Amino acid sequence: MFTNRLREDDGIPYIAVRSQRNADGREAHVWEKWVAFSVEPLYLALFARWDPGMIVRHHGHYSPHTLTVLAGSFRCGDRELGPGDHIELPLGASFGPFEAGPDGVELYEVMMGDPRSWSDDEETMRQWLADRGAVQLDDPPIELPAGLEDLRAVFAKGAETPSTTDG
Length: 167
Prior knowledge:
Layout: E1 15-21, E2 27-39, E3 42-50, E4 55-56, E5 59-62, E6 65-76, E7 79-81, E8 86-89, E9 94-95, E10 98-111, E11 114-118, H1 122-132, E12 135-136
Antiparallel strand pairs: 1-2, 1-12, 2-3, 3-10, 4-10, 5-9, 5-11, 6-7, 6-8, 6-10
């Protein structure tokens, strides 16, 4: 299968997966284009676009995770990243929080296993939002394959293994 992050006519839409209202009243989102989402074996590859100023909480994934900055910039904790920069997140590790730069950021990400995330640092997210006058909005609805439970609103320890099916 061939896809392109810049083409909208390949049948794979960008979907909003995170939302916030910035201090200036604009809504900002994380947009993802899931170009490969397999259940057996479980993995996800995606292109992501973050609107300017978008903040994503400190988090980890239930799998190894890599990302590469394609365009724009963002901050990961104290580090500024731009085009060509790459992050490898081993299983069990966490990173962030993140803040998209003034022109937003475009990423290519791969999660080699369960792509759902965990975070046990809700206070840092609250502080980053408050410091910037931003408000986290409800997560837009998404449809995960094979009955995977949506864990975006859950703050839990990374060692807690999530259920792979609802119920």
